[in-house]
Amino acid sequence: MAKRKQEDVPAGSPAWMATFSDLMNLLLCFFVLLFSMSTVDAQKFQEVAASLASSFSILPSGGSALSDEGILVGSGASQLNELSDFYNNMGLNMDGEFDESMKTAMEEVEQQGLEQSEKMAEQIESYLEAANVADQVEITATSKYVMLNLNGGILFNSGSADLREDALQLISSVSNAIYEYNNNEITVEGHTDNLPINTSLFPNNRMLSLYRAYAVYDYLVNEKKFDEKSLIASGRGDTVPIASNATAEGRAQNRRVEIKIYNALNS
Length: 267
Known about the structure:
The chain is of the alpha+beta class. It has two domains: about 20-90, no CATH class; about 110-260, CATH 3.30.1330.60. Helices cover about 50% and strands about 15% of the residues. It contains seven helices and seven strands. The strands form two sheets. It has a five-stranded mixed sheet. Strands 1-2 form a two-stranded antiparallel ribbon. Helix 3 crosses helix 5.
């Protein structure tokens, strides 16, 4: 009886195994890529945490570790996690509004700023009363600054940016009253009414208001030795009236110089 010839087995692995191996390699590369990305993010987060710790003392030494879930652990770390959430969402809820915790924090900061400004205003007013010039200065306290309103008619002659001789005592007293806050940011703003002016020196009201603000700025720096790095002079012209320009009384109120002393939270 004749023997059946045994069929030769094809050399190499089956075709399906090569395809399966390629698929496994691709999946392995995919998960390695995901793992490497997550590791880089964690490393960057640790670097940010360490930087904040050294700069703002949010965390003590060794308090910048990450948990298995990628959450920063250690004393004071919850603030950083909340800060991360805030920046991711910009402090907004699903409706695009500030959430309650953010509103509360903003209100607390505003209240603290107002308390600082009110305390500053009381001290400045007490000094001006002792100098017998308090009735010539209007003081307003806000959550950002204390504003001193000086009537332009007292400080300058009509159409002039030179301080009057009889106004120097007032400016000197005001300077002494606010010198304690020399390191705070201080702005000097000049304001006018809306009556047009066009002279060789002042082609318009904005230029007149700027020169008047600079006259006060120059006095604070050169006569009272205020730090010019913390002083700003600007001219607003007739763009920010506080009374109606339709009457002489209103225009007189609008001609003014405002000195704003920002509190510590806003300087």
